[in-house]
Structure formats: structure tokens, C-alpha cells
């Protein structure tokens, strides 16, 4: 190799190491690229700069619980524009609304709208704020699921529909689930997995390119809200489907049920995706519904380790790190538990509204190397250290105003995206991009 070629190669290597995009990551679906709430980018702040968070852009949007997805230079987010009806939430009642559901694509660097796909949609839901499911981006396609079961495969470049389905109609459902379709669609290989409903079709696998049904499986009185999850255990891949009657492990290719464990959460609220950690599988919900399972190493099967312990969130997923579970309970307590025993190590009200317990409190935890970002329902972003010894707050800042209404307060119940050195967070009025780079 000549000295000139060596010099050129060295320049390219050094430039790639120091380029802002060198370790940039997408957040192309619910909980990130691996659906594990881990954000592995380097050179991220440990405290906010003087003067507060660095806002790169803000863009107006409408109502929704759907989190944003970030892929390449594009941001995808879903919302609902109400034209008629009373949208005040009542946990025991469905509201009738008329409006349009939309999928909006924005330029990641500027927030400029690039395209919008919208359709007329009538809601008959409790908490009818807008779409629940985060878009799933797979290459040049984006998959979206509306609160009333409108499933779309869109061209990510221009928003044109490639195929679509009305899940309520196609699977003979009288109505959407009480709190709407909420299970984030999952792309794995050539399949798109969705939680649907109806007889024998709680779980449905579609060909992701054509929308053709490949298989359907499971029956229950209601499908619940838990997103489908793929794990590998017992020498095979397993598709996890948790409806309000049981947690099930299925063959992703055929829908055959490998195993089933009874698990019945209060109010049919199977919401939080089960978490695989080593040879263990942890699933949880409010009012003491939880189970730790040991995954068989030789075949697709499980054995029960314990029940009723650990954090019991409403709809925000916990994290498992170094044999410990960290999560925000339904009353707002940030808690740490020993995974193998279920014993509580500590708790804090740092994530609760104004430091006081409140019903259906939410806090979204994302791990970034040796620190954690916690997005609270009051629109704050906390930078913290979490360990079995305790909670250490490094900094916090207000990044959004809470706008969604619940029984006694306003909240932000949308999981943000962490990508390309930034946080992308939304409420019912705007989506904001804030730099978290050093």
C-alpha cells in the first residue's frame, strides 16, 4: 500500500470515528430497533446545558397516544383530528367521536412536513384521544395501526398506501377493544404480526409485502392490548401473545401454540410486553398481576418461578438490568426489585406527579449506556443513575406540556423516541426534537 493510499484510508477512518452520524441509531418502532428500551449512542449529555434543553424544532400535530418512530432522515407519527363528539375521558364509558386519523411524515433535521396520509374514522372508545400504536418502519415501508383497527402498509417515501385492512370488518368483530387497538405491529422476517380479535384470530400473521393472511390463532373474549414479541428460547424462535386470559408462546411460522400460562389482569388490561432476560421471562400488569417464568433450554416450554411480585405498571414497560427490575408502578412509585426473588430493594416518588402518588401514573425508562432517561407523564425528562443501591437524579427538565386528559390531571402518555442524538417527544399539540448530544 502506498503512503498516499494509507493516508487516505487513515483520514476516512478518523473522519468516521468523529462524524456526528458515526454511531447514530434509528428508533424505527416501539421501544427502539430491538424493542428493548436500550439506546446505545455515545457522547450523550449527563446533564442539561445551562439555559435548558436545546430545542432543534417543534411541529404542530393533533391528538394521540402513539409514539414517534425515527428511521433515517424521517420521523413518523400518528394523530387524530376530531371534528365532532365529546372527547372527555371516562374509564367506564366509550365516547362517540368523528374525525380523521392521520400518519404524518416529517424531516428529521428540520421538522418540516414531507407527506400526510389521512382517512375518515369514527371512534367508539374509552379514552378516545387518538391512535395508540407507534408506526413500525421496515425499509421503504411503514406499518400503522389505528385505534379502530385500520391497518396500513404505506410507502415510506411518499405515504401512498401499498395495502390496507379494516381488521374489525375482516375478522367479524362487533367493536374495537374497550380502549382501542393498541398493540404495536411487529415485523419479523417476511411476516407482520398483529393482535386482532374475533374467533380464532387474536394473533394474526400477514405477509408483510402483500398483506395476505398466513395464519391466525387463539381465541379469547377480548384481544387485550399487549404487542406481539419475538424471543429465542429452547432452540427455536417463539412469538409471545398475551391476551387477558393467558400468556402464550407460539411458533411464528405456523401459529402453533407451544405453551400457555394463565394470566388474567384486572380490567382485561394485558398491556405491557413480556421481557426476556437470559433464561427468564417476566410479564406484569396492575393490581399484582405478574409472573416470572423460567424458559426451558431444550424445548419451547416454561416453568413458573414466582407470581405477584415486581413493579405493577398500568401501561409503561419496566426494564431488567443486571438481575434487577426497574419500573414505575401504577401509583407513580419508581421501584427496584431483585429479579430472581421478586424482593423489593427500594422505591422513590421522583416520577410521580408533583412527588405524590396518583392513579394510572406513567413513566417511560430508557437505558443509555450507564445512565437512564425517564420521561414522566408531566412532560419532564429525568437523567438518572439506577442501581440496586438506589435512585440518583442527575438532572431534569420540562420538555413538553401535559395535554391529554385523565380523571384528575393532564398527562403525556406517549413514549418518546431516542435517535440520532436526540429525543423526539409529542403531546396533543406538538412534536418536539431536542438535542441530547454533548
Strand order of the largest sheet: 1-34-33-32
- Rg calc: 21 Å
How much of the sequence lies in strands comes to: 35-45%
Helix-strand makeup class: mainly beta
Question: Number of helical segments?
Answer: 2
- In CATH, the architecture of the domain at 26-43 and 62-175 is Beta Barrel
The poorly predicted ranges are: 1-21
Sheet with the most strands, sense and barrel status: 4 strands, antiparallel
Shape: globular
Helix content: under 10%
- Give the N-to-C terminal Cα separation: 37 Å
CATH top level label of the domain at 26-43 and 62-175: Mainly Beta
Total count of strands? 34
- And the CATH topology of the domain at 26-43 and 62-175? Thrombin, subunit H
pLDDT averaged residue by residue: 94
Description:
The chain has 438 residues and is mainly beta. It has a domain at 26-43 and 62-175: Beta Barrel (Thrombin, subunit H). It is 5% helix and 44% strand. The protein has helices at residues 3-18, 167-170, and strands at residues 54-60, 69-71, 74-84, 95-107, 113-125, 136-138, 141-145, 150-155, 161-166, 186-188, 191-195, 203-207, 213-217, 229-233, 236-243, 246-250, 257-262, 275-277, 280-284, 290-295, 302-307, 319-321, 324-328, 334-338, 344-348, 363-368, 371-376, 380-387, 390-398, 404-405, 410-411, 417-419, 422-426, 430-435. A four-stranded antiparallel beta sheet has the order 1-34-33-32, with no helix packed on it. Strands 2-3-4-5 form a four-stranded antiparallel beta sheet, with no helix packed on it. Strand 23 (324-328) and strand 24 form a beta hairpin. The protein starts with a helix and ends with a strand.
Amino acid at each position: 500500500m502506498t503512503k498516499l493510499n494509507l493516508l487516505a484510508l487513515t483520514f476516512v477512518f478518523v473522519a468516521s470515528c468523529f462524524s456526528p452520524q458515526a454511531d447514530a441509531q434509528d428508533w424505527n418502532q416501539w421501544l427502539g430497533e430491538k424493542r428493548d428500551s436500550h439506546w446505545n449512542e455515545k457522547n450523550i449529555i449527563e446533564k442539561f446545558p445551562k439555559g435548558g434543553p436545546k430545542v432543534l424544532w417543534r411541529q404542530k400535530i393533533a391528538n394521540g397516544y402513539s409514539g414517534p418512530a425515527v428511521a433515517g432522515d424521517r420521523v413518523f407519527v400518528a394523530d387524530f383530528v376530531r371534528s365532532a363528539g365529546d372527547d372527555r375521558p371516562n374509564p367506564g364509558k366509550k365516547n362517540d367521536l368523528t374525525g380523521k386519523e392521520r400518519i404524518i411524515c416529517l424531516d428529521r433535521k428540520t421538522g418540516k412536513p414531507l407527506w400526510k396520509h389521512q382517512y375518515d374514522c369514527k371512534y367508539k372508545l374509552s379514552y378516545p384521544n387518538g391512535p395508540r400504536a407507534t408506526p413500525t418502519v421496515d425499509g421503504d415501508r411503514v406499518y400503522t395501526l389505528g385505534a379502530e383497527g385500520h391497518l396500513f402498509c404505506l410507502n415510506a417515501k411518499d405515504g401512498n398506501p401499498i395495502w390496507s385492512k379494516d381488521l374489525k370488518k375482516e375478522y367479524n368483530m362487533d367493536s374495537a377493544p374497550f380502549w382501542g387497538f393498541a398493540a404495536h405491529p411487529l415485523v419479523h422476517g417476511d411476516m407482520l404480526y398483529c393482535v386482532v380479535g374475533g374467533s380464532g384470530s387474536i394473533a394474526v400473521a400477514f405477509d408483510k409485502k402483500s398483506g395476505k393472511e398466513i395464519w391466525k390463532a387463539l381465541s379469547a373474549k377480548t384481544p387485550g392490548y399487549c404487542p406481539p414479541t419475538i424471543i429465542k428460547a429452547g432452540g427455536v424462535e417463539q412469538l409471545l401473545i398475551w391476551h387477558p386470559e393467558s400468556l402464550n408462546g407460539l411458533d411464528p411460522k405456523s401459529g402453533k401454540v407451544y405453551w400457555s400460562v394463565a394470566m388474567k389482569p384486572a380490567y382485561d388490561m394485558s398491556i405491557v410486553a413480556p421481557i426476556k432476560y437470559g433464561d427468564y421471562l417476566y410479564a406484569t400488569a396492575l393490581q399484582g398481576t405478574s409472573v416470572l417464568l423460567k424458559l426451558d433450554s431444550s424445548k419451547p416450554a416454561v416453568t413458573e418461578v414466582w407470581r405477584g411480585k415486581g413493579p405493577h405498571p398500568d401501561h409503561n414497560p419496566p426494564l431488567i438490568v443486571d438481575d434487577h427490575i426497574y419500573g414505575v408502578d401504577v401509583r407513580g412509585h419508581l421501584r427496584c426489585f431483585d429479579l430472581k426473588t421478586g424482593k423489593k430493594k427500594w422505591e422513590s416518588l421522583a416520577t410521580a406527579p408533583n412527588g405524590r402518588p396518583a392513579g394510572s401514573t406513567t413513566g417511560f425508562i430508557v437505558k443509555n449506556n450507564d445512565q437512564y432517561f425517564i420521561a414522566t407523564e408531566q412532560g419532564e425528562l429525568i437523567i438518572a443513575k439506577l442501581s440496586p443501591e438506589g435512585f440518583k437524579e442527575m438532572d431534569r427538565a420540562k420538555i413538553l406540556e401535559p395535554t391529554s386528559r385523565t380523571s384528575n390531571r393532564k398527562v403525556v402518555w406517549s413514549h418518546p423516541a431516542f435517535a440520532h442524538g436526540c429525543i423526539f417527544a409529542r403531546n396533543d399539540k406538538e412534536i418536539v426534537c431536542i438535542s441530547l448530544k454533548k
